[in-house]
Amino acid sequence: MTMKKLSSRERNERAVAEMADTVMRDTKWDWMRTRRARLTIVGVMIVMLIAIPVAWLTLPSLAALGVVALAAVVWWALRMSVRVVADLPDEYLDERQARVRDRAYLEAYRWFASITLLAATLTLVWFVATSENDLVTVDITWAGAMAVFWTFEGLALTLPSIVIALREPDRT
Amino acid sequence: MGRKPKSEDPVFSRIEEHRARAGLSRQQLADAVGVHYQTVGYLERGEYAPSLALALRIAQLVGVPVEQLFSLTPFAEATTDSDVEESV
Fold first, then answer.
1. Number of CB pairs, chain A paired with chain B, less than 8 A apart
2. Is the confidence metric ipTM above 0.85 for this complex?
3. Residue among B38, B41, B51 minimizing CB distance to A95
4. Rounded to two decimals, what is the model's pTM?
């Protein structure tokens, strides 16, 4: 009997299904799912979100990438502490988990919108204060561009899981 | 006068009692109705109000009418099995 060769999309879907099943049933990481552990992970994640742009602005690129790699590990712990509920597709969540995820995204969007609005407002104020003839010329280095990129990328990737980690009660 | 938030309406449940009577663990009930075992815990503690479809699936699995599993008012205490049967 010949085995049907799976397409890359089917292989990817199977991998996601296996990952989802594993993370929903595992008890190995239950120690990360207590309220105290989640608060600790969220605290470390926020520290890393601040450390990443600072690292890009103050350290050599390779060292800054190391900080990004460390943040990725903390992000993995954050996602595991909430059983990846914020990031799984609909078909791997039950109705309660989908509701938790949807509420988390609503709240995360509000936070992200507030932060973005604040940044945009500060930029506008800075422009008005420093412009000559409605013109400001800015020199941005690679490090500066990376600092901005990773700030917003980090927030977009982590906020939903941070909201779930802060809001969910102490149940594993 | 504004609408009262839905989250303030508690839903009382007797899932744990009927699940135990059916000889099912939380994991077994969860697998049978297609939810995570944690969700069964939330349902049993009245911390989550299920959808109609989920409520009906649980009721069908444990073999009781859905109104015997969920209520908007606290269930009366049943002291004996015969009391429970009489209330059917």
1. 23
2. no
3. B51
4. 0.83
